Structures are given as structure tokens and as C-alpha cells.
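Input/output pair, single chain:
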Amino acid sequence: MARVTKAEVRAEDVVKEDELSRALRAAQNGDEASFRLLYRDVQPRLIRFAGAMVGGDAEDVTSEAWLQISRDLHAFRGDLDGFRGWTATITRHRALDHLRRRSRRPASDLPVEELVTMAAEGDTESLALDGLATGDALRLICDLPRDQAEAVLLRVVMGLDAKSAGKVLGKRAGAVRTAAYRGLRRLAERLAPPSPEAPADTVPPETADPPPGALPAQRGDRSGGPGAEGVR
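Output:
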């Protein structure tokens, strides 16, 4: 069997995106078949996004979101990526409403198998996602700081660009890009196998005592830093 090349996969993706873009316009004009096509594309992403926020209540949250999406679709203005961002914004608002009505449920409510990830372009993202597919995916993402977890879900699971994800979160594109990168880097570091060459009692360079007269090393920013504010 001939292997499918990356170029062929990209070409298929372009065709699919073009088809979905046409479906968006037709759905806005009342075409039910086109609306179902959009639903099949977006709903799995929304389920994973909502599931990370409300656990097993994701179906209820997305059902409420689709009521608003279908009601207001005719008034939406934007392209396909904007539509995905718009649906994510509505779903996030419904999830936050849900959390205000009820106490937050444990993240373990959602089986790890339901968090099916999508391929991403960057090497760091690919490394993290390859590991996520093997287990403990939801726990690892939910262990990230809130801003990083949401940025990872929007960029990688929802497939939004930084600008669209920023609109969902009410942040600058650069802040979302930074938060997503830091979150994915943390995931990649946690999923990386331990180096067999490193002795167990080795002291990391940044924590070791500097030689006499040497200036202490500057540590990297691990707190989220400017542009990666937490979600309030």
C-alpha cells in the first residue's frame, strides 16, 4: 500500500476546508445538510474543549451552546476559522455559566480516551501531542496553569490560530501564543523519558552553587510571565 505523503494530506485538508467554508455560507442561508456538515466538524472539538472545563457535563454544555449557535448563525460574520472561534467562545461562556451553577467536578469525570488530539505544525506541539495520545492526557492538561491549559485546548484541539484564540479568551494573540507554547513545552518535558546517562544525584546546573566570585545564573521565567495572564 502506497504511503500518503504530507503534501497529499495538506492538499486533502485544503479541499476539506474549502468545502466547509462553502457549507458555512450555505448553512447561514438555511441549508440543513450544510449545517450538519459544520456540526460534524466542530462538535468533537467543542466536546474536548468543554470536557476539560466541566468534565462529564460536556454534552450538556455543548447542547446549550448549539442552541445559541443555531439561533444566531444567520448573524455571524467571518470566515471558517472565525466560525470555530465563535463557537468556542459561546461554549466557553456556557461552561463558565455551568460552573457558576454547580461546583466544579473532578477532572477524572472525563475518560482520557475522549481527549482525541489533532496534529499540529510545531515540533514542540507534535512531541507533546504524540505523548498525550498514550495516556493521562486530561490530567496533564488540567495540571497546567489555567491560562496555559485553555490556550493549548484552543490552539491544538480547536485548531484556532493565535488571533482567534485570543478573541475567545479576551487576550492579545501574543499572550495566547506564549501561554500555548509554555503549556506544550511543559507537557513535552513531562512526557520525555528520563535520560539514562544522568546520575540520580546530579544537581541541576541552575540550582548548583556557583564557583567563588561568579555571578548567580539568571533563571528562566517559570511563572507565566507578561502576556500569559491567568483567566479570571
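The chain has two domains: 10-110, 112-193. The radius of gyration is 20 Å.
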